[in-house]
Amino acid sequence: MITLFHAPQSRSSRMIWLLEELGVAYEIRPVSIFRPMTGEGQGDPANPHPDKRVPALVHDGRLLAESVAIVLYLLDAVPQAGLAPAPADGGRGDYLTWIAWYATELEPALFAGMAGELARSAQKQRNHDAVIARLRAALEAGPYVMGETFTGADFLISSAMAFGRQAFPADQVFDAYIERCRSRPAANRALALDDQAGLQTPA
């Protein structure tokens, strides 16, 4: 059994989407978290995440925290879902490179754009421009970052882009990509489940 420790409308929301993509049995355990933007919430003693954040996931007694770790673990644990190249597959290197790029390049560029830091830092602007150029080039060849197949890399990248769309310039290529990923049946099911979980969230 997989248990997802989840706070609605947070970083753990996309993990419901991932679990729906995998088609595995799981349960959602609502927890409260501190939300810096509003000052609401608190660290929940029931949350096993080391920093009392989300996502956190327990599978067969193994605790995983942070989105990248969860994606890498689950997609290898459920290879039949076809969301990650196998270790011996020729595309494995590209897949891992895109996952690392998401964490080290896309997320910093996204938050710099959302925080209005680009005008104050030429370096951050250059990094931001490089992220846009690389992603756009991949999607023009697309329809996904690795070509014809939706992978865990697209899951991470598209969900982050949807969350922080205002951090990037208007671009039909980006908008079409986000819509292509977010219109997947598993993503639609996850949206409804996230709403239901919100009704159960501890005060």
Summarize the structure.
With 203 residues, this protein is an alpha+beta fold. The chain is built from seven helices and four strands. A hairpin with a 2-residue loop joins strand 3 and strand 4.
Task: Describe the structure in your own words.
The structure is a single chain. The chain is an alpha+beta fold and 203 residues long. The protein is 50% helix and 9% strand. Strands 2-1-3-4 form a 4-stranded mixed beta sheet, covered by helices on one side. Helix 1 (13-22) links the parallel strand 1 (2-6) and strand 2. Helix 1 packs across helix 7 (185-198), helix 3 (92-114) packs across helix 4 and helix 5 (152-163) packs across helix 6 (172-182). The chain is globular. The model has no long low-confidence stretch (mean pLDDT 91).
Q: Describe the biggest sheet? A: 4 strands, mixed
> What portion of residues is helical?
40-55%
The low-confidence parts are: none
The order of strands across the largest sheet is 2-1-3-4
Q: Looking at the chains present, what oligomeric state does this protein adopt?
A: single chain
Please trace the helix and strand order, writing H or E for each element. EHEEEHHHHHH
